[in-house]
Design brief:
single chain; about 160 residues; alpha+beta; 6-stranded antiparallel sheet; 11 strands; about 30% helix
Length: about 160
Amino acid sequence: MIDFNELFQYIRNLAIPDLVLCALAVVVLDVFALSIILAANRESRLCRKRWQKVSNGLELRFWDNHYPLEADEILLGRHVSADVRLADASVSRYHAVMTVSAGVWSITDLDSKSGTYVNDKKIKQARLHPGDCIRLGSVQMYLARQSNEPDARRTRKGGGQRA
């Protein structure tokens, strides 16, 4: 535990040049800390901008759920470890995976029992475009541009709704 009385006594006994040096050291350390915080914030913004270009600013939508595509690989399924969890018995635990490369999203069926459909065509793998309808079992969702409404976006994992 710090004894503040001893600390104040020590500071009172310092000479003026020592106090100035201590104050200068504190200011320099604060400037370094502030510059690190600002650099990290700038880097975070740059990373978000780069990811927007890579991901093409898309999200999955179904009912009131919005899932921004914020990784280069998105696992869709019923299992709790899925990135987009769809709590529907017609969806396999590991149903499909979405991947992005150079701003182009594709979806691959993971040998699901009920199949993966894009615009009502059963697929093994397909390229995706904004507006495409994706159906996993009886869950239907759409690939769309991200909305700018912050309260409309939900990134949590959770039970998907049936369409």
